[in-house]
Amino acid sequence: MTHGAWGQPAARRKRPTSILKDEMIRFYFHPTPNPAKVALFLEEAGLEYEVFPVDTSKGEQHLPAYRHINPNGKVPAIIDTDGPGGTEARVFDSSAILLYLAEKTQRFAGKPSDRPELLSWLFFISSGLGPFSGQAVHFQHAAPEKIPYAINRYRREIERHYRVLEEHLSGRDYIVGDEYSIVDMSAWGWLERAPRVLATDAPLAAFPNLTRFFDAISARPAVARARAVGHDLTFKREVDEETRRALFPSNYPEATR
Q: Is the whole-model pTM more than 0.70?
């Protein structure tokens, strides 16, 4: 694989048994938790897809061409070349992508009777676990000032969300029903980064059910493939003024961006 100019695919994953046959998913990717969830679905479902790297530290998510794909300037996003009616369709936000692909492929969406729980837990992750994890990371690792109040608040909120899942997973293998679903993939994406979120080497030590759940998902063959997505690409790692402006544009006046 090569990392060419933005807008060009860096990798193509071919799956002869692809459920969607000749269609191609264009996957706009950066190695962060939300794209990791989509990578896991694509690998679990055996879909054919192309990886389009978006280097968020260079601000590529703000380029007009990418804003046409995701007006919110975030990753991940996909273009389904065989969307509704056979036309191209864009989908952005990891939860929307997971729901869209699950419905399209009729896989990993749980049983019809699971739908209320599936939607509830998926949005629990997307509106709670994910954003609070991101803020915990920001205030511990990226903020120019270490603000004890902010660090304590977001760490405590993450621990609270972990406890909710810990209690729910008592006697359960999966978050929803008795089948592996997109909700498990979504939770895995953020639990994968728990050491950074809580800034400790054993972040799940106090949560045995959550540990068991995470280890079981991580043992799936598709997880190893999902973790490998993007490993042969080069993304900017230096945190300089360009990076800070690209990742935290709201911290700067409009006129100076």
A: yes
